[in-house]
TrEMBL record:
PANTHER family assigned: 2,3-DIKETO-L-GULONATE TRAP TRANSPORTER SMALL PERMEASE PROTEIN YIAM, TRAP TRANSPORTER SMALL PERMEASE PROTEIN
Family under the similarity heading: Belongs to the TRAP transporter small permease family.
Source superkingdom: Bacteria
Major location category of this protein: membrane
Subcellular locations according to the entry: Cell inner membrane
Keyword Endoplasmic reticulum set for record: no
Membrane topology designation: Multi-pass membrane protein
Name of the protein described by the UniProt record: TRAP transporter small permease protein
GO biological process, one term: C4-dicarboxylate transport
Organism: Roseinatronobacter thiooxidans
Length: 180
């Protein structure tokens, strides 16, 4: 049985839904990157060839980078692509797969806590942005509401935490499996 089928066997409806949502968020982030690249190139061309830049590109691009990262982080976690140092894990993997799985479990739980802390920290600013119609930019020239960008951070952080919890459950299963 291949690894994907083995994972699908253990993954329930919630796990499949989480993977689907993470993939959808990542796809939105990828499309956003393509659109942002197009707008930045158009801005540079307009600035250099026609002395007419596109207003607000720098402001939107700066906030887009953060939003895109949060849209794609849950998929990175679920697909094992989150950047980390695994030197300690490689050492333990030679001696005890259970110790390695336990360390992976701890790392996943810490990851979930960190992303829940991010969501918690951003929540008050998001509520304030909703209540006050907060925006960024220069009034009368170019403004964009901050609410969508802040909401994306919360959604991305919550799904990243859920992804880490799903990874933690998988490592918990590995700890409980008989060693061969």
């Amino acid at each position: 049985m291949n690894a994907t089928t083995e994972q699908d066997k253990h993954r329930g409806t919630m796990g499949k839904t989480l993977h689907w949502v993470a993939a959808a968020l990542s796809m939105i982030g990828t499309i956003w990157i393509a659109l942002l690249m197009f707008v930045i190139v158009a801005d540079v061309m307009g600035r250099n060839f026609f002395n007419s830049p596109i207003t607000g590109v720098a402001e939107v691009a700066a906030r887009s980078v953060v939003a895109i990262a949060f849209l794609q982080v849950s998929a990175a976690v679920l697909n094992g692509r989150m950047t980390r140092s695994d030197m300690l894990l490689r050492v333990f993997s030679h001696f005890s797969p259970r110790v390695t799985a336990f360390l992976e479990l701890l790392f996943a739980l810490v990851g979930a806590v960190v992303f829940l802390a991010v969501a918690y920290a951003v929540w008050p600013d998001t509520v304030r942005a909703f209540n006050t119609n907060e925006y960024f930019g220069v009034r009368g020239v170019f403004t964009v509401p901050t609410l969508p960008f802040r909401a994306i951070i919360i959604v991305g952080a919550v799904f990243a935490a859920l992804a880490y919890l799903a990874v933690a459950v998988e490592h918990l299963r590995q700890i409980g499996r008989p060693q061969s």
